[in-house]
Amino acid sequence: MSGKLSRRSFLKGGMAAACTLATGGAAAAAIKTPGNDKQLATLINISDCIGCEECVYACNESNFNKYPKPEKPFPKMVPSRVKVEDWSDKQDVTDRLTPYNWLFIQSATVMVNGEKTTLTIPRRCMHCKNPPCVKLCPWGAAKQQENGLSRIDSDLCLGGSKCKSVCPWDIPQRQTGTGLYLDILPSLAGNGVMYKCDRCYDRIADGEIPACIEACPEGVQTIGPRDEIIKKAHELAKSINGYIYGEHENGGTNTIYVSPVPFEEIEAAIEKGDGKPHFSAAKDTMADANNLTTAMLLAPVAGIAAAAGKLFLMSKNADNGGNDHA
Ligand code: SF4
Ligand code: SF4
Ligand code: SF4
User: Fold this and answer.
1) Which of 131, 226, 300, 324 is most buried, judged by most C-beta within 10 A?
2) Is the CB of 228 under 6 A from ligand 2?
3) Ligand 1 atom 8: the closest Cα is on which residue?
4) Average pLDDT in the 145-163 region?
C-alpha cells in the first residue's frame, strides 16, 4: 500500500447500530439499504474516522471486477496532444483517486479544541444531486439513477474526459487502452474509459449497503434518504459545534461531511494534486446558462449515441459468441 496510513494499525473494532439509517461495522452484512426508492445520501462523520483504510480495501475487493483490463501496446493517441494515462502497473496506489482506486483517505493536520490533530477523511465521488458529469457527457455514458447515485458505463465511455473537466472535484480518472474506442475510433479519437465510485450500485440494487460503509469498524458513514441524512448531519454538527460540507456545494450533493473544524482549515491542510479532491466552495455548475443549454442540446444526441453504442456492442458480442474485451 502507498500513503502514510497503515491498513490495520489503527483498528479498534466495534460496530455501529442499524436503525432507520444504516451504518457500517463488522456485523453489518445483514443490514439492508433503507429507502432505495428515494434519493439516498451518505453522512461522513470525520471525527470518527481513524484512517485504517478498511473502507479503501473493501471498495477494491468489491469492485475489482469492474476495474480496467487494458490492451497493450496502446494505439497512437489522436489527437497526439492527448496524454496516455496508464495506471495498470500502479494498481496498488491508495493515496489518491485512480481508475483502480475509487476511494482514498485524505489527511489534514489541524487544531481541534486547542490540540494538534490529524483528521482522516474518506474521499470519493460526491454523487451530486444534479451531476454535471452526467448532464454534459456527450455520449450518454454517464447516468444518474433515481436513488441519486451516478455512474459511468464503462461499455459506452470513450474516455474523452468531459466528465472530469466539468466535475467541480475532478473525480473521474482515465485509463487508456480499454473500452469502446478500441473498436470504433482508435485512429480518430477516444482515449480509454473514465472510472469513479459508482456507490456500489449493484450491491444497492440487491438491497445491500455499499462495501466501504459495511467494512468500516467505526461506523463513520451512514446511508439513508437524503432528507433524513441532512437532518442527522445538522444534529451532529450542532452537537460538536461543527461544520457541514456537501449540502449546498455544486447545488447539493448526496455526500454530506461533518467536521469539527471549518472546511477552509481542512482545505489549507490537505495535500493538493490530481486525484486529490479539494474542500473549497463549489458553485452550482449546472446553474450556468451555457451548461444548461449544452445539456438540453446534448440530451437527445447523447441518448442516440448511447443506443448506437449498445447496438454495436450487442452485434459484436453476437459475432464473437459473447466474448469481449473488458
Ligand atoms: S462529484 Fe463529480 S463525478 Fe461525482 S457526481 Fe458530482 S460531478 Fe459527477
Ligand atoms: S460506495 Fe462502493 S464504489 Fe463507492 S467508494 Fe464505497 S465501496 Fe467504493
Ligand atoms: S472511514 Fe472507517 S474504514 Fe475508512 S479509514 Fe475511516 S475508520 Fe477506517
Assistant:
1) 131
2) no
3) 133
4) 91
